[in-house]
Amino acid sequence: MKSFELKGTLRESVGKKATKAVRRADNVPCVLYGGEDNVNFMVTNSDLRKLVYTPEVYLVNLDVNGKKCNAIVKDLQFHPVTDRILHIDFLEVSENKPVVVEIPVKLEGLAEGVKAGGKLSLEMRKLRVKGIYTQIPERIVIDVTSLGLGKSIQVGAVSVPNLEILNAKNAVVAQVKLTRAARGAAAAAAAEK
After folding, report:
1. How many other C-beta atoms can be found within 10 angstroms of the C-beta atom of residue 155?
2. For 91-104, how does the pLDDT look when each residue is reduced to its tens digit (9 = 90+)?
3. Which of 14, 33, 34, 94 is the most buried (most CB within 10 A)?
4. Contact at 8 Å (CB) between 168 and 158?
5. What is the separation of C-alpha 157 from the centre of its chain, rounded to a whole number of angstroms?
6. Residue whose C-alpha is closest to residue 108's, from 141, 140, 148
């Protein structure tokens, strides 16, 4: 998992009035859970761009007024109209406590069904996994070379070492759909026989 450096400043006061003042100063209020105490802090909006607006999952090296710890982004809240970041919850991670995160899925290879005229469709861009943060990969790579026309790969067929996949086992991750052109060719071939 990639790491991301983030510096924060402790918030002296919390509540609606203080939070609005933080947002007016172009900062984002944050909370760090999972440690001995919950830590309320703020970070600048510009520091978060490369962390939030990416499909990657990062291990965040937090530095809040000199206190350092490792964390992951647990929850994000956006403004419903402007899409501005309103709040972030971080979860402190440790070597002995598993965490639940969503990992991006990457398809690899040229599927047999695509060669036959089908279209490869990625149905789930991310999978929820549970494991120790040091063993979580940057992405889950699925080989689709043997995937035939009209066939699919379900979550139950995907395995990642040292991780437990939490999505429903019968949920479809990727499939090769029959295109209109492929259906027409199949119907023409059947009519000739």
Report:
1. 18
2. 999 888 888 888 99
3. 34
4. no
5. 20
6. 141
DSSP annotation of 94? B
Domains and CATH numbers, the chain: 2-93 (2.40.240.10), 100-192 (2.170.120.20)
Half-sphere exposure of 41 (CA within 13 A, CB side): 21
H helices of the chain, where? Answer: 16-24, 49-52, 112-115, 180-192
Q: Are 119 and 176 in contact (CB under 8 A)?
A: yes
Beta-sheet pairing, 172-177 with 152-154: antiparallel
Tens digit of pLDDT for each residue in 48-86?
A: 888 888 888 888 998 888 888 899 988 899 989 988 889
What is the DSSP-derived secondary structure letter of residue 4?
A: E
Q: What is the pLDDT of residue 186?
A: 64
Structure tokens at 4: 């991301």
When the pLDDT of each residue in the chain is averaged and rounded to a whole number, the result is 88
Q: Is the pTM of this model over 0.70?
A: yes
